[in-house]
Amino acid sequence: MSAYNQEYNKDNTILRYLVVSMLAELSKKVYYYNQVDEDTLKKIEVPFFYSISGNERFLLDNFMYDAEAAGKAIGDYEVVPRGIVQMNSMAIDSSAQTNKFTRAEFVREWNGILKTFSLETNFLPITMGFGVTLICSNNLEMLKVTESVMNKLYKGTLFSCDLGMMRVQASMSVPEDYSQDRLFEWGLNDKKEFQVTFDIELKSFMPVFESGILLSEIDFLTRESIKSNPTASGVGQLRSNAEGEIGIYFGGVFQKLLTSQDNILKAPGKDVQSNLSYFDPNSVNTGGPYVEGEIDSSKPDPETEASRSYRNANAEGGPENSGLGTADN
Predict the structure, then answer these.
(1) Is the pLDDT of residue 78 over 90?
(2) Buried b (16+ CB within 10 A) or exposed e, 274-297
(3) Which tens digits make up the pLDDT trace of 197-223?
(4) How many CB atoms lie within 10 A of CB 204?
(5) Which residues have CB under 8 Å from 295's CB, separation 6+?
(6) 86, 189, 197: which is closest to 142 by C-alpha?
(7) 315, CA 20 to 30 Å: which among 23, 152, 260, 329?
(8) Closest CA to 136 of 198, 79, 80, 78
């Protein structure tokens, strides 16, 4: 299994994907230059980190005991300048809602074969508010960082977010006001920090699937559907099977349709309700012969040799190399 397809507990969280995409967009975007000497300029990049501060026990375990056991330095040695991002608010922008449910398609791979699935999806517009604090070491650095933010981020930035099986558009915007905290007096134990604070508004979409199915459940259902019927053709859709079990199944809504053709005289005798009366089929001697038929949409379509050669299907491979794992993990 490739590292890209490995699943962890932090995966399948759409809101986290949006935060990570925003941090990736901010990465290496804000920078400035220091004049080292008459002919040399040094580029200084401002990294951005998401605030994950916790209680004292959390800080001791992660930044003191574990660091000491790993042979790392203990103490505050964070890079300066740096940006700290913290989420303050989140809301649904109902005024931007258009079609509530549209048909969305996504693709999964199984044993070298791409399978298409279709689900009714409501792309819910959401707005997330973040507070950003830029920590600098002196007043000149604070001015340079503020100038770089205005040049690189104002007024808005468009980017896309990868949700693992689909991409959604996102935008972030910064305000016109920037607060600057300058230190004029400090003691020996105080941190000599200059801070620039401002807000970022992130707008994007969160896909909500039909029946309220979560993203992790979608991944499990598609994997089990491909494993149970790897040779099925058509587009997989969410519905119940003959036993009432919900899942993703191929071949259309009707897996198998049985048809019959008989004489029209055998229709109900008195009313459209067939349980009131009926004609005895043995007493009807007119009409064409009785015909039975079957339409099975679950049968796989034969694949041409040119198609197999194009996707390299004749190469050796098995389910363990498909990137979906086995039934036990």
Answers:
(1) no
(2) eeeeeeeeeeeeeeeeeeeeeeee
(3) 999 999 999 988 888 888 778 777 777
(4) 24
(5) 254, 256, 257, 259
(6) 197
(7) 329
(8) 80
